[in-house]
């Protein structure tokens, strides 16, 4: 297809044979652990990404149930030069989780057991294919802990998948990056060897911290089969506030004030522009957070150990924000279902922005003061090119919207389109990447590079850094069988 016109299948990879399939069948044994093209539609879910933007042509999905099986599969693939695409929940947003050509899909979905949970230390050990929400529920029910990462895809994405992408999510502001909370990993290396590094130590300065290499490696250097992670106690009280704000300038002021005045109970600070909310409004039917429309909205979550104390603190913060005219309107949740509803207005933006046909996604880090200027610049560029209109259905672009994790300096620029076209893509790229690089930002804050951004790593990493990434890849995966055609 058009998307793949600039990459070609590398003929060094063997094409799958009946004997290979028989070999895998013997390893897996169980029925249902291996999906072939006998019924071609059975492969569809695994070959297509969440955005329905990328489509692979794999003829085989393997779903092992043990690390040992993963090891045997990968050892065979390495010997036979069979390329493999590791897959978790397939919610990734850069086309990294699906094959480009006929790579075998190795789904870890059936590696889905909780291995242990220590309710004194808060250390969870689980298989990589445990769904994030299931892990969170398990530790909630077994000691009142919380998974140190939350995101809109929690019902589908895997613990191993979020580690493989080093996902950031909605509470990074509070709990930090997975580079801090992951204590150990079990990984099947590209030659089939098992790296057992499932440690449970907070402090361990005995040589290179090898697990870090796999956090954010996007399936290019090993298959994560187990995760050991430190989970914080679950706060007893959550409050969510949704505010209408006049300008992006004011969003920053509210953020500064929230950090100072809500301090240790601030657990999320998210923002969205008016168009994000409008697109969401046309897609979901939940009660609207505020009566009127505002140029920007802020969602603040507090969580702490004492509901009364937290709510008094939030009330004081909000009344002074109104008095200082930083905020134009606002609401605070008074129970769990209201809190969930307010969160849904933020968490449903990704789905809503794709609902009109498709979406070009740019997930960037920028200095806070420049964060929103990219959205303005892109809207101007699209309009000048005559490509964009909210009402005129003959135009490919509906609108460019901006939302994201202000607290982490992470903007999501989403260009909602009626259809994907080369004109739109050429208008956006490399413009967006040049803009970000010009401001010393990152072209991927949290989604990774995958296939979509494979050619743009140079906007955020130096030649020396890229050289070392390639050297590491060559040491551990000299045959290049893991996730080829992606960013490394
Ligand atoms: P997949 O999509 O299956 O895979 C992602 C990448 O990791 C691929 O390159 C794949 O090859 C590799 N991979 C997966 N599992 C393994 C494994 N076990 N071993 C080795 N490699 C593996 N991201 C954020 O950072 N923050 C957000 O707030 C956020 N919100 C989202 C909201 C929605 C609605 C959606 C659809 C996505 C969101 N994401 C967000 C994207 C995010 O990258 C994924 O949701 C998540 O990190 C991917 O997990 P997954 O299990 O679906 O992995
Ligand atoms: C989010 O913050 O909602 C996610 O990263 C997903 C997205 O950007 O669409
Ligand atoms: Zn995000």
From TrEMBL:
Location relative to the cell: Mitochondrion
Enzyme kind, highest EC tier: oxidoreductase
Claim: Oxidoreductase is one of the keywords in the record: yes
SUPFAM superfamilies, per database record: FAD-binding/transporter-associated domain-like, FAD-linked oxidases, C-terminal domain
Main location: mitochondrion
Signal peptide region: none
Protein name: D-2-hydroxyglutarate dehydrogenase, mitochondrial
Naturally occurring in which organism (per UniProt): Hanseniaspora guilliermondii
